[in-house]
Design goal:
This protein is mainly β and 172 residues long. The protein is built from one helix and twelve strands, in the order βββββαβββββββ.
């Protein structure tokens, strides 16, 4: 089989070991590789995380594909998934489980390198036109808060930001 770089003689022979993984230049006087940008490891065998130094633009954590799969979430309910990547030894479709790295962004950050901020989200006031079970008629939501106490304060929070100090209000 002929590929863009060399002939292969056997099936699944695509990952032949080459000097500095073809992602760096060998300093023959030291026996060390000088890796290209975005590659690291003694043989430049791993991709580094994007976002410069610190990795992930300082707003996330750098993980391997295997770790990212284990950390993945279903929707936003923080339930662990059964997804794994690279758990089966020598499985030909997940050979890169520890070679490709990516960012898991901190809360309120997004993008492949965690350099973008998320904007607040809210319900679209135009939704709910009564077009079936997936689009019920929009109704105003009323929340009632009651607190019985003889001292202290009551603080209403939204997204961990203090909105109102309600300690002086007796009726609401």
């Amino acid at each position: 089989m002929l590929t863009a770089f060399r002939y292969f003689n056997f099936e699944d022979d695509a990952h032949y070991k080459v000097e500095c993984s073809n992602m760096g230049v060998c300093d023959k006087t030291k026996g060390e590789c000088k890796c290209r940008t975005n590659f690291k490891g003694a043989a430049c065998e791993r991709m580094s995380c994007p976002g410069g130094e610190p990795a992930c633009s300082g707003h996330g954590t750098c993980y391997s594909q295997a770790q990212l799969a284990e950390n993945s979430l279903i929707h936003s309910n923080f339930a662990r998934t059964e997804i794994t990547y690279g758990k089966i030894p020598n499985y030909k479709y997940t050979w890169d489980y520890n070679k490709v790295w990516g960012c898991q962004c901190d809360q309120d950050y997004t993008g492949y390198d965690c350099s973008l901020r998320l904007c607040p989200k809210g319900d679209d006031p135009i939704t709910g036109n009564g077009n079936g079970p997936l689009d019920p008629i929009q109704v105003k939501e009323i929340q009632t808060i009651s607190c019985l106490a003889t001292s202290g304060t009551f603080v209403k929070n939204e997204k961990n930001e203090k909105v109102d100090d309600l300690s002086e209000i007796s009726v609401f």
